[in-house]
């Protein structure tokens, strides 16, 4: 049941634009508090808490078992009052850097696993390089040692891609899960984490 409660639910604003991803537990809390409605991706009907709890889960459909009934797991909710689109940016963090660079050394292209990857400053910190999206990349331990306190040009180690700040989308910071029903609400651009050069 815990895994079901942490599954992702797409959150739409009042005009059905994607604004984020919440856990099933959070989505159900919003619906129970009348701050959101559940969107049925098959017919686009909006369901209140009482409507939703009266529905019976289909065969092989994910559900939550309560004391007295099985509850369908919502995949999409629409907020009842929020109509803005957030102007979020992707926070610069170790986790998001790993996601941007796809757990790949940006010098040799190897994917040795997160334990064998380090964060390299393109312009070394000793030369004033900052910890920013545009100056940090993932590097395997060997490449980081080989590059040492030099720039990629000085070390004759060209980067595979120029490091840039990723564009925010509701899926970026949460989950690598693709729920098919979301495709009705998201453009294909939301499914990719590839960065525009």
Which outline best applies? elongated
The total count of strands amounts to 9
**Which range does the strand content fall in?**
15-25%
> Which residues sit in consecutive blocks of at least 5 with pLDDT less than 50?
191-197
Helix/strand class: alpha+beta
Helix content: 10-25%
Gyration radius, to the nearest Å?
A: 21 Å
How far is the first residue's CA from the last residue's CA?
41 Å
Mean of residue pLDDT values:
86
Total discrete domains: 2
In DSSP terms (H or I, runs of 4 or more residues), the helix count works out at 5
What is this structure's SSE topology?
Layout: H1 2-5, E1 8-12, E2 18-23, H2 24-32, E3 36-39, E4 46-47, H3 49-54, E5 63-65, E6 70-72, E7 76-79, H4 94-100, E8 117-121, E9 136-140, H5 141-147
Parallel strand pairs: 1-7
Antiparallel strand pairs: 1-2, 3-4, 3-7, 5-6, 8-9
